[in-house]
Amino acid sequence: MSLNTAHVNGGVLIHSGECILLFSEDVTLDFSGTDTQAMKGNKTGRIYLTTHRMIFTNNKQNDALLSFSFPFITLHDVELEQPVFGANYLKGKVRAQSNGNWIGEAKFKIVFKKGGCIDFAQAMLKAVSMASRNASGDVPPPYSAPTGPWYQAPPPAYAPNGYYGWIPPTNAFPDQPPPNSVFMTDMPPPYPGINPGYTGYAGPGAAGYANPGATPPGGAPAQPPPAGFAPPPMMNGGGPAGAAGFTPNGLSSSKLFQMLNR
């Protein structure tokens, strides 16, 4: 998990070959159990479920925390809470990644103020399970910052059609991110996701996506990497790094799995 590595120009920044499955506005994010000052206090913003991770972007642009990346491999003890009073929420623990702008482990709580928490949790559990099948037995190479530009992502990056017979519950989350708020780099995700073919290194461009070496889609001007943008390596020594440690068991053995399968 990394701090302030998934945003640019007030929008979200994703990897080449990564797709946004679900999007929800007006969620709140709280952390506990960490001394990182940027993670203190209640944050309100948007949540994205992608083929590889969750991403939170902050509505408050002068906050010390502008974005937060939750790769599936860094999550554990995730639970769904349904209080008698108040909105449903997800809670769990997340481990820091090397060079991810914070260290250690933290507890998180994500409240869905407009509903949809159960549908989101079901989709995340499915995505984690599918992604675990594509994990390599070898430790992926260290992650490095993109050397190429970022650019406006084409619509397939935030309007997926489904994966291997599974369709994300867009009926519960019908809204899509504004097209001018989704950006992409040419670097592939440094961790496995739903799509097969994870390699851990940059390729010429994922199928169905424009290669940033050519003219960016829609005439959007290519841009250099944003200031301070330093995506992290795979994992530090305290967490799982390969297929042996990357399974959905941290989710399926939790209350989340039990509640969703009653």
UniProtKB/TrEMBL annotation:
Q: Which GO terms describe its molecular function?
A: chromatin DNA binding; transcription coactivator activity
Which stretches of sequence are listed as region Disordered?
A: 236-262
Domain GRAM spans what residues? 41-128
| Residue spans of biased composition, Polar residues class | 251-262
Question: One Pfam family this chain carries?
Answer: GRAM
Give a GO cellular-component term: nucleus
Q: What is this protein called?
A: GRAM domain-containing protein
